[in-house]
Amino acid sequence: MSTQPQRTCPSCGNEFSGILSALVHFFEDGHWGALAETAVEGQCLTSEDQLFVLMQAGLYLTATRGLGAPEIGICYNRAESLCHLLNRPLLLSSALIGRWRHTVVTDKLSTAMHVAERAHSLAHERADPTLMILTYNALAATHYWLGNFESARQCAMHAAQIWRSGDVQSNREDIDTPVVGCLCYEALSEWHLGEISSSHAHMDEAVLLAKELKDWHALAGALNFAAGLYYLERKPAEVERSALEAIELSTRHNFAQWLAGGIAYRGWARSVSGDTAQGIPWIEQGIRDYRATGAVVGVPGFLARKAEALHLAERTSEALEAIYEAEALAERFEHRLYFGILHRLQAVFLAAIGGQENHIETSFCAAIRIAKEQKSVSLEKRAEGTYAEYRRQKASGSGGLGLRLPLW
Fold first, then answer.
1. Contacting residues for 388 by C-beta, under 8 A, at least 6 apart
2. Cβ neighbours of residue 405 under 8 Å, at least 6 residues apart?
3. Shortest CA distance to 202 belongs to which of 165, 257, 263, 210?
4. Running DSSP on this structure, what letter comes out for residue 125?
5. What is the DSSP string of 6-18?
6. What DSSP string runs through 257-300?
7. Of 21, 148, 326, 327, which cross-links 303 as Cys (Cβ 3.0–4.6 Å)?
8. Neighbour tally for 176: CB within 10 Å
9. How would you classify residue 36: left for phi > 0, otherwise alpha for psi between -120 and 50, otherwise beta?
10. What SS3 state is found at 35?
11. pTM value?
C-alpha cells in the first residue's frame, strides 16, 4: 500500500488558521453558511464560486472544529442544493459525505445511514473508485456504531480492495484518506467477531498508511481508534501510548475532536493503572471538550470509561449515574454498539452496591443477548464470564452486601 501517491490535503499542514481566515470573508459577518452579498458590479460570487467556497469551508471547519460543529452542517446542506442546481453529481456525492460526517456524530444513526446510502448509490452509478471508497467508509462507520459488525467489516473490506487495486486518485474534497478509517472499522469489527490477530494487523496497517501518506488528520483518528481497540482488550499501557500520540498530533494541528478523545482515553488508562485522582478529571475534561465540538456519537463510550474509573475510586453510585446517562444517549441516538457493554457494567455496579438481584440478572441477560444478536463473540464471552463469576460468588455467599466483580 506504500506505492499509493501522497495526498495534498488540508490535514497535511498547519495552514488551517490562514485558510479559514481567508474563507470567512466570503460569509456574512463571519456566519459560516451565509454567503456574503456585494453591491459592487462584477464582483458577486457565481453559483460555481459559492459551491467551491462552501465545500472548502466545510472541509477545513471539519478538520479544526470537529465533525459536529453546526456550521459544518449548514455549509454542506447549502452545497448539496447547489450541486443539484448545477448538475454536479461528483461534487454532490462529496457534499453528501460531508453531510453524513456531520450527521453521524450529531443525529440518529438511521438518519446518517440514509445519507450514506444516497452517497453510495451516486458513487455506484458513476463507477468512480475514489467515491466508492468514500461511501464504503461511511457505510462501514455507520454499521459499526449500529452494532452491525459483520456488515461494517464487509463494507470496509470492499473499500480496501478498491484501494489496493491502485486505480484511486486523491480526493481534495475529503478531509482525509478514507481507507484509513475503513481499516480501523475493519479492525474493530474483527475484534468483536473474535478475529483478534487480523484485528491488530488491520489497525497497524491503518496507522502505518496514515504515516506514510503524511495524512495527519487520518493519523490522529487512527490513533484514537487504536486506543479504542486496546481499551476493548483492557491494555492500559497501550491505550495511553496511542492516546499520547493522538494528543501531541492533535495539539500541533488543532484537531479538536481527536484531541478530546485522546485526553479521555489517557484519563481512563491512568485510572485503571491506579491513579484515579488524576485520571478521572482527564476523562471529564475529554468528555467536556468532545461535547463542545457538537459530537455525540462517542459520548456513551467515554461515559462508560468514566464509570469504570469512578467504580475503581469506590464511587460506584456515581458510576451508575454515568451508566444511566450513557444508556439514555445511546438509546436516543441509536448507538447500539454500546448497548451490551453498558448493560454488563450496570450489572457489575449494581452487584457491588448490593442492588436487587432481579435487576442484576436482567442486566446480565440483556448484555449476553445483545452480544449474541450482534455476533460479538468477544463481548459475549466477557459478559458470560462476568455473569458466571457473579453466580459463583452468590452461591458461595462471599462479598457480604456487595460483590466485587471484574470490570473485564
1. none
2. 347, 348, 351, 352, 386, 389, 390, 393
3. 210
4. H
5. PP--TTSSS-HHH
6. HHHHHHHHHHHHHHHHTT-HHHHHHHHHHHHHHHHHTT--TTHH
7. 326
8. 26
9. beta
10. strand
11. 0.90
